[in-house]
Amino acid sequence: MPLLEDNLSAARRRIAAAATAAGRDPGDVTLVAVTKYARDEWVRGLLDLGVRDLGENRPQQLTERADLLPADPPVRWHQIGQVQRNKVRKLLPAAFLTHSVDSEKLLAAIDRIAGEEGLTPQVLLQANVSGEDSKSGFTPNELRALFAAGFDRFPHVRVRGLMTMAPAAESDEVDAVARPVFAGLRELRDELGGSERLPVLSMGMSGDFEPAIAEGATHVRLGSLLYAGLDAD
User: Fold this and answer.
1) Which phi and psi angles does 70 have, rounded to 5°?
2) Segment 44-70, tens digit of pLDDT
3) What total number of domains does the chain contain?
4) Nearest-CA neighbor of 110 among 59, 160, 173, 154?
5) Do you know which InterPro entries this protein is assigned to (predicted)?
6) What is this structure's pTM?
7) Residue 232: is its pLDDT beyond 60?
8) What would you report as the CA-atom Rg of the chain, rounded to the nearest whole angstrom?
9) Domain that residue 85 falls in
């Protein structure tokens, strides 16, 4: 699929340019290809093009695709959408990294089930930096309280970092609208322990990943950018 390859190459070039402009190593930014609306042949095409990090919004679709795709080459599956507690047990064995732990109740459920299953899942805590009612996640103050209390209560979970989403914005307003949110997440991460304690910052999607990289994103979640024009191809 030449168009898929062109789209992926363009995305990688933009990631590299944004990282270089920020004085960062482009290799420190992971492209997570979101497969929520992707056809199976597009997903296989991404694997053929060397993509190894795939993201799904729904746990059921993640586990189904993880079962269908070949084990070689290996895929690192990222759960990027909301997770209901009754989906945790099936999700954990398949997910390399869960980006969307948005409450202490969900974190406790993941820890309990991980202990029962003998797993040590890697998770990110979702922060609602923008304060929008439409977005889930911990408030900054809730995260401060959680970190102050410590994670001894959750011995089976590895908290690797933070995730956020910026408000939707028109293309000419992205930097003004999104960048302060991404800066806010980075500043919160620094306050809670810095990059050694929390090495992963998952922020930035197809419409706003460049300001996210400028503010320190280590993982950007791209979907529509990769599949543009494929329906007509």
Assistant:
1) -65, 150
2) 999 999 999 999 999 999 999 999 887
3) 1
4) 154
5) Ala_racemase_N, PLP-binding_barrel, PyrdxlP_homeostasis
6) 0.95
7) no
8) 17
9) 2-232
